[in-house]
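Hi team, as promised in this morning's meeting, here are the two structures we talked about. I've kept the exact order from the run log so nobody has to guess. The first one is mostly here for context; it's the second one we should focus on when we meet again. Sequence first, then the predicted structure tokens.
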Amino acid sequence: MNVTCHAGTRYCQRILGFEEKEAKKYYKDNKEELDPKISKIQEEGELIFTGAFGEFPECDYYINGDIVMPCRDGAILTVYRAEYGFDDKLNDKITSELVKEIKRLKKRYQKEGERIAKRVERRQRDIDLVDSDIANVEKNLSRLKEKKELIERQLQLDKAQQDSILDDIRNLAYKLCYSVNFRMEMLAMRRG
């Protein structure tokens, strides 16, 4: 695992106890010796979590004793001690108990995961069946809409045909009613 300059400097500062400026210089001067030591701590550590915390990117979090090392893309990003504001003995006890609890929960997660995976698979099949039903209903709906459009076109044709016959009746009635005698009667009615 590669050790970033930041991780090397933090190792010197937080694990070896150097002040920040001294830590940078010490790491730079002793990089060849320190990188294998830092890498070994990570390799002998245990992966406790993979994920992101706040603005810190997703990483693999390794712990070895009380030393935590976030790693990503084959590199150790930083190094720090798990500290909770107590003396070393109590900090170590808290760290140890937290690691035990994480291991217990990981086992439970794995056990539950197998059971849940079966339920997830079954629910996914149910979703697929419902999706299939939805597709069939949509297909039927589409056919019904096409059928309705056809019936509406036929209705318009029927109405147009009916209107055409009514127009023929109106034209013939006009010819019949608007004869010479009808016009003379209308003129007589106007005169008075």
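And here is the second protein, the one for discussion:
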Amino acid sequence: MAPAFSTFSAVAELFVTLGVFYVVLRDYRGEIFPWRLATTVLVFEFSVNMMYMIFRMRETSGAVREGSHSPYAPFMAVHGALSLLVFILFAVLSYLAFVAMKRERHFFRDHPALTWGFLVLWMLSVGSGWGLYYLNYLT
């Protein structure tokens, strides 16, 4: 059975993803950038999901020292790095969108390749997290 924190984090990530897509696509469509929601999503993502990853990293590194590491450890490392990358990207891009909004511009609409590239990376991160959840707890 999956630990409660793992399940909570996995489900929460779906809501965070909805928030990220809403924030990005709203600005992409030329509407006012929802900076309060972007800030809330960032704070929640850091408070819950980034802390969960740090907790899991500690657990995994302890298992490696004991010689009982997961066969998925390389996949977990790539997922962790990708998750950190998209979190930082979301923070930076949200800041740039906020600044652009103040100048009556729309950052995500003005940078479509960056916007869609970011959203693809975000989905790879979420998909790899759910893949790990499935491999670790549902098989």
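Starting points for discussion:
The longest helix spans residues 35-66.
Helices lie at 4-28, 35-66, 73-102, 107-110, 112-138.
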